[in-house]
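HOLO CASE FILE
Compound: heme C
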Amino acid sequence: MRLRILPVVGVVSLAAAAGVVAVASSSANGLPSYTNGYAKWPRINKKPFTSTDPLSSAHQGVKNVYASRRKVGKRYPNGTVIVKTIQAAGRMGPPGQVAVMRKLNGRWRYVEYGLSGTRYGILAQGQLCQNCHMAARANDYVFTRK
Ligand code: HEC
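Model generated. Tokens follow.
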């Protein structure tokens, strides 16, 4: 999974170097810049997984979860970004969906992106995500643990 994503990251930085205009808060592929390099962050799932749990119906496909920071005690520190990649089984290239949680001022912000052509756009965000992630409150609202 990591190896497949790395070439894409290369293409994106080349595009940026070539002067492709990107909004300040997002990188050339449409994902926010705070997710840059996520494929190199520690993965918090043991191996790529699919899930039949009804709760995970919101995210269907082959999944990996990466965290920019480690938990300190029971909580992830402010500034932590957690990225879940979701790819249709057997598909290569950049993941079709990227779900992101980012902790600011003690609260998680949730946004999910979908790939359309070569760019990501927002699919869903906010309260609807949080409502379901309440079920993982005991683990700081994060379902995945190693
Ligand atoms: C119906 C329940 C449900 C909803 C709604 C939901 N999620 Fe999740 N989410 C899960 C489950 C369950 C997991 C654990 C991994 C898996 O099974 O896919 C998860 C995992 C994640 C992860 C990886 C970290 C973790 O908690 O394991 C991120 C990031 C994430 N979701 C973001 C979002 C975003 C952004 C939205 C809204 C657009 C959202 N989720 C909506 C159930 C939900």
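CASE NOTES: Confidence is low (pLDDT under 50) at residues 1-24. The CA atoms of residues 10 and 77 lie 29 Å apart.
CLOSED: yes
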